[in-house]
Amino acid sequence: MDLEYLRAHPGTIPRLVEHQRIRITPLGGAKGGRIERWTLDDGTDLFAKVTSEPSDALPAEGRSLRWLAEPGVAAVPEVFTALPEMLVTAWVDGGPATVEGAERFGREVAALHASGAPTFGADTDGVLATLPLRNTPEPDWPTFYVKHRCEPFVRQARDAGALTAAQASTIDAALERVADAAGPPEPPARLHGDLWSGNVLPGRVGDAEGWWMVDPAAYGGHRETDLAMLALFGAPHLDRVLAAYDEATPLAAGWRERVGLHQLHPLLVHCVLFGSGYANRTVAAARSF
């Protein structure tokens, strides 16, 4: 059994696992799921997420990966199957995060964004971490961002006690400024949607080397959003990534001043997931534009 067999018969993967036809190495897990390294008969390794609570999260991740891979301009691991109970992709052998790799990655992200999307949003909803992500298409980015990326999570964070009423009001006031603060209109970009440094893996898949994008929540949005997410928790050689991106596809004037605007959504998500420890940083982002 090899990769060609799996490509030709993806529906057989659960049965092959059940009958121990694939060697499995546990790598860790979380509530309701686990991460595994699968080794085929020919020695090829695969990456697998398996859950005991089937849902649309893994199929949504598989759709996102395939959509990002579609233009053929960025390093995205191949998806072998994406079922409610398991996601299986190519294995990334980790490698060093070099300056040359960072510059190549910057150019690839620029090309991915430039490949475009049909609309702001997507034809199906998504999942970010464990949270439903509404992708209802809208005619412009400010409307989409406010209605579907920020307002739902402000409400959730406030209701959960992660934001006080005063903090939520400050953020609501900032959302009224988004259209004026967004900069010049741009066409929908093909976004990864959760491009923090932990979802960028320098390394190899087979003989192909690159910085591989994993665990996306992809949709059509504003290209500065992915770049702001890279900056949120830091990334290796971020200055070289951004410089290479800007050289390949110049960013609109004032983009640095809009970083807080684009970080508002992921910070709200962190409030919902992890509590009030992110509240002050979220309010600071709201006050930055």
From TrEMBL:
What species does this protein belong to? Cryptosporangium aurantiacum
Q: Which domain of life is it from?
A: Bacteria
Q: Which PANTHER family match?
A: FRUCTOSAMINE 3 KINASE-RELATED PROTEIN, PROTEIN-RIBULOSAMINE 3-KINASE
**Lineage of the organism:** Bacteria, Bacillati, Actinomycetota, Actinomycetes, Cryptosporangiales
* GO MF annotation terms: kinase activity
Q: Give the record's family classification.
A: Belongs to the fructosamine kinase family.
Write out the entry's keywords from A to Z: Kinase, Transferase
Q: What is this protein called?
A: Fructosamine-3-kinase
Q: Name one Pfam family in it.
A: Fructosamin_kin
